[in-house]
Amino acid sequence: MKRDIQILTGQVLAADCRKTIAQATPRELYNAVSKAALDLAADAWKRAPGKRVAYLSAEFLVGRLVYANLLNMGRLGEVQQMLLDAGVDANVFEEIEDAALGNGGLGRLAACFLDSAATQGVPLDGYGIRYQYGLFRQYFEDGFQKETADDWQRFGDPWSVRREEDAVTVQFGGQAVRAVPYDTPVIGYGMKTVNTLRLWQAEPFQAFDFNLFNAQKYAAAVRERDAAEDISRVLYPNDDTDAGKRLRLKQQYFFSSASLQDMVRAYRAAHGGDFTHFADAYAVQLNDTHPTVAIPELLRLLVEEAGMRFADAVQVAHDTFAYTNHTIMPEALEKWDQKLFRGVLPRVYPYVKKLDALLRRTLEQRGVPMGEVSRYAILEDGMVHMARMAIFATHSTNGVARLHTEILKDTALHEWYELYPERFNNKTNGVTQRRWLALANPELAALLHDAVGDGWLTDLSQLKRLEPCADDPAFLARFMDVKREKKRQLAAYVEKHEGVRLHADFLLDVQVKRLHEYKRQLLNAFSILDTYYGLKEGRISRADFAPTVYLFGAKAAPGYVRAKGIIKYINELAELVNGDADVNGLMQVVFVQNYNVSYAEKIIPAADVSEQISTAGTEASGTSNMKFMLNGAVTLGTLDGANIEIAEQAGAENEYIFGARADEIARLQEDGYDPNAVLAAEPRAKRVVESLVDGTFSDGGTGMFRELYASLTEGASWHKPDHYFLMRDFIEYCDARLAVNRDYRDARAFAAKCVRNVANAGVFSSDRTILEYARDIWHV
Ligand code: GPV
């Protein structure tokens, strides 16, 4: 019998705070509804027998869990009605902070994979770190980014269960800490499968060392506790860059070791002490190199705790592990100083050395010339090269979009591809349509329900049946109504959170993603400034221009000075444009603060244009590009990452593609590229770039803008000028953008393009991706 979530919620509230639903605070209500729902999921939350996948990831950017879980449980409508009946706003849980245990695409991909695996019945558990503080919260002060700590647990964490009985010990050099798992159910759509997200928290063995305390060494006792807790204190805020910090290595080993100990213990309980068939019980996916220290750790456990020979242990590791690469950017490829590594992980380091020695013997046997060995070696120039270890010791290395995998094979990891071609494979990323369509855009979901039914919820390829609707005026009218409504909702939200009145009747052009030079938010800003001048000076006809909101959302890593300079620049641009009454009816620039998963759920469904303008060859895949497509935005982008596959699926005539392709960029890198020649030849380019230094904008005396200017025109010791080819693509980008604007004026034709995007988004479901991993890599 279906149990009543209203009765359960009422009972929890009565027991916990002696209040009714109508009386409870949002936070009390959140905890009660979540507990009630957790209770309803309890029966389905049990381990199925058979092989399991462990998805090891330093990040799980799950966002807000309550609505997504209720949706998958089939309880969302019921809870919304319950709240309505009690006179409570159905959006009451929007006060609940996101669980931002990730930086960006990589962490959000892991969260989409959890949802898809549970929905598709793939027995996959996530393993990671229960950071006390997630990604910093961002606000702007005088246009500059400021950061504050993200104390996400202050609302409670009702979706997790502490499993004291499964705690393990993780040993560093002279320090031993307890790893205590917190399990969160991962509820598949329809609740047929409930998997587990197991996040480890670091704790001292005793809250306090009383010997120290009694000896009046209070500070020492506290220090010991803090040193343990520090390990899971905070998420590193670098996206796509490697900080190489000691504490980061400790974090990586902490969750890798704890997760493997967990698996080894369960294996022993089920199969006894013979570990030769470990890979039949577990497939372990390494989400980038962050958990790669798991490889020597498994070798250590197999040799020292299961008595296995090293060579046999290597075979087990090879069969068990697989590695996903998420970038070719050299600054993100993890390398650890050998001394640091050995100092922090003295028990593990010998196994890294043995692997390195095995690799060197293998290279020799394969006839790789001595002079080439240094390109492969795990231990080389005083560093431990993690990606090399990951490729050598696993059976699969995959990229995350077709172009990305081709670049890995042809250039970035070419020498490895020559050695092990059979290990390389592509798994183009995807996103979960439950959160990114059903939950974020119920209005569009309802329209799809009427047009093609609800099968797309678990089989996104069914959206293809929408294709004829792109020629149906009545359908297009309804689609445009949905867009209008989503813009209206977004405008209300932005007004509340930013104090800005967003023009809900304008074309909405959006770039939301981490702030990084390669993603080229600065190119976007330059183009807006060029449009502004064009409108003011009559080069662009005001009468023909579709009024546009340019919306940005992005966090810069706190130590990434250039990225912070770009944020300040865009905020200065916003002030210029929004403060000019002459263009107020035509342009608005808005940079929202604290862009996160929940904000994305508001912004993406409202967008008309999805800005995906990275330098070709730099964005491994992108995943927001897929979310925009699914919600009916056209892509204004370069042929980079998954944009290529998006344009291929939807048809290039339904996107706006511009700029140099990856092969041209590679050629320019080889043969030389001179941005100053572009600046000399193209006054429009020169004018916007000069705005960094000619007094148009102020960086508050920080020198940030002059540094940005120098990065474009002079370069630096580590970079050539305009390393990301903004000037190469500037005019083409401006032209493509004007083409979008022109086309937008034919509202129905534009809506038809949007609908064709929705209809062809089927392959970009993470359900498809996860089923490919299951079939090709995990064999489950
Ligand atoms: I490496 N990515 C990320 O978010 N953080 C990282 O540390 C690394 C990669 C991203 C890539 O930049 C995106 O192109 C990609 O879509 C995403 O990972 C998921 O694969």
UniProtKB/TrEMBL annotation:
- The top EC class is transferase
Indicate the principal place this protein occupies in or around the cell.
Answer: cytoplasm
The UniProt entry, under InterPro entries, shows: Glycg_phsphrylas, Glyco_trans_35, Pyridoxal_P_attach_site
Q: Alphabetically list the UniProt keywords.
A: Allosteric enzyme, Carbohydrate metabolism, Cytoplasm, Glycosyltransferase, Pyridoxal phosphate, Transferase
Gene Ontology BP term (one): glycogen catabolic process
The cofactor required is: pyridoxal 5'-phosphate
The family this protein is said to belong to: Belongs to the glycogen phosphorylase family.
Described function: Allosteric enzyme that catalyzes the rate-limiting step in glycogen catabolism, the phosphorolytic cleavage of glycogen to produce glucose-1-phosphate, and plays a central role in maintaining cellular and organismal glucose homeostasis. Phosphorylase is an important allosteric enzyme in carbohydrate metabolism. Enzymes from different sources differ in their regulatory mechanisms and in their natural substrates. However, all known phosphorylases share catalytic and structural properties.
Protein name, entry field:
Alpha-1,4 glucan phosphorylase
UniProt organism field = Ruthenibacterium lactatiformans
